[in-house]
Design goal:
352 residues; Ribosomal Protein S8, Chain: A, domain 1; alpha+beta; 13 strands; seven-stranded mixed beta sheet; 19% strand; Wheat Germ Agglutinin (Isolectin 2), domain 1; Hypothetical Oxidoreductase Yiak, Chain: A, domain 1
């Protein structure tokens, strides 16, 4: 049976657990707010259900509370940063603040962030940029467990490697495209497994490389002690973009790429992120950019709506609708996820 909890109550409860796990009150509030915002936005995969893994990662030493982003190199429009295994929600926000300042000053900024713990929903960082009138591009790799099979492969070889693009639109809500390069995010498989649901065909392969609709194959070890794998979206095209994210987010940033033996017991998640920020005002195309962007969006949405749809939407629209609904009605937590949260809290002496 699921629980329905107000967002504010969830933030407070998560913050209490994070403080008990070693975070300052400020850090705990930042991480808790970010996780709850993911749930509010409809991305339960990146929401409060991540807390048990974070607690385990702190206890095993792979996640370092109260770590700040470190500036390794600063040449103005180029920033090389190290997250020092701190909470990704914190060091990622710090990194974006630095990059935004540089882009506003120089017109652009290329920023590499290495060794951050799980950054969470990358769309949040794009939202930070577009709120300042900047275009942002993000390429991220994931070092945790290789859960995605390469196109033509039969086992997991890399992570879900998200890509995100944020574009401000004058006078209306921004375009925020944020997606895993796997057909679905790994966290969505955890949610489906906890809820006892099967998933769409063509999403997964089992430990033998055969198609399956059981999300458990990428959540818990199977009969041979092995895991199945997610498939890339768009076949070779999504696979190619995933490799680009690994090379840009992992290799170019210095954060590392996946080519090591798998240890399913390790709970820490390391992200590397390459971010490109552009200020249209300093590019000299601000006026035509605003005009053409709005004209194109109007053209898209002026066409006929296909059967089964209410409207032609843009990336970011579903999240904004979901936030309003869940802020008013509360956030649903399935019973399995709630028990995992209770268990995580107990590990650091907190009773939910």
């Amino acid at each position: 049976m699921q629980k329905i909890l107000p967002a504010q109550q969830l933030r407070a409860q998560l913050a209490t657990v994070l403080i008990a796990a070693g975070s300052s009150a400020e850090e705990a509030a930042t991480v808790a707010a970010n996780l709850v915002l993911a749930n509010l936005s409809g991305h339960d995969s990146h929401g409060v259900g991540m807390l048990p893994r974070y607690v385990d990662a702190v206890l095993e030493g792979g996640l370092k509370p109260n770590s700040d982003v470190q500036i390794v190199l600063d040449s103005g429009a180029l920033l090389t940063l190290n997250g020092q295994r701190g909470y990704g929600q914190v060091v990622g926000e710090q990194a974006m603040a630095l990059g935004i300042t540089r882009a506003k000053s120089h017109g652009s900024c290329i920023m590499s962030l290495a060794n951050a713990h799980h950054l969470g929903r990358i769309g949040y960082f794009a939202e930070m940029a577009v709120a300042q009138g900047l275009v942002s591009l993000h390429f991220v790799n994931v070092l945790s467990r290789p859960v995605v099979a390469p196109f033509g492969g039969a086992d997991g070889r890399y992570g879900t490697n998200p890509c995100c693009i944020g574009i401000p639109l004058a006078g209306r809500d921004p375009f925020v495209l944020d997606f895993a390069t796997s057909r679905v995010a790994q966290g969505k498989m955890r949610v489906a497994h906890n809820e006892g649901r099967r998933v769409e065909p063509g999403t997964l392969i089992d430990e033998d490389g055969l198609p399956t609709t059981d999300p458990g194959v990428v959540v818990v070890p199977q009969s041979k002690g092995l895991f199945g794998a997610l498939l890339a979206f768009g076949e070779h095209k999504g696979y190619g973009l995933a490799v680009a994210c690994e090379l840009l987010g992992g290799a170019l940033t210095g954060s590392g790429t996946w080519h090591r033996p798998t240890n399913p017991g390790v709970r820490a998640v390391t992200n590397g992120m390459l971010t490109v920020l552009i200020d249209p005002a300093k590019l000299g195309t601000q006026t035509v950019f605003e005009q053409e962007a709005l004209a194109f969006v109007a053209w898209l949405q002026a066409g006929p709506v296909a059967p089964g749809f209410d409207a032609v939407q843009l990336a970011g629209d579903p999240e904004r609708v979901c936030r309003l609904q869940r802020e008013a009605e509360g956030i649903a937590i399935d019973s399995q996820t709630w028990q995992e949260l209770v268990g995580a809290a107990a590990k650091v002496g907190v009773r939910l």
